[in-house]
Specification:
The chain is mostly helical. The protein has helices spanning 8-11, 13-36, 48-60, 67-70. The mean pLDDT is 79.
Length: 72
């Protein structure tokens, strides 16, 4: 496992800082979207997995081949 080549950004201090900042921003966006989306009139919020799946499909839905997953 340690012999595997690491990407250039993961060996650079600013690269790992940028990736961690992007991760924090993405989590904050998902948290706000999860908090604002409610199921009907109840106060239940969707799960983290449902929110992440929704964002993935919204952002990348046009390039994903979803027909392959419909039969599963």
């Amino acid at each position: 496992m340690e012999d595997r080549r690491r990407p250039a950004w993961s060996r650079h201090p600013q690269g790992s800082l940028v990736v961690s900042a992007l991760r924090m921003m993405a989590l904050c966006i998902l948290a706000v979207a999860r908090k604002l989306s409610r199921h009907g009139y109840s106060k239940e919020t969707p799960s983290w997995g449902q929110v992440a799946e929704h964002f993935l499909l919204e952002l990348c839905g046009s390039i994903l081949e979803t027909k392959a997953f419909d039969t599963v």
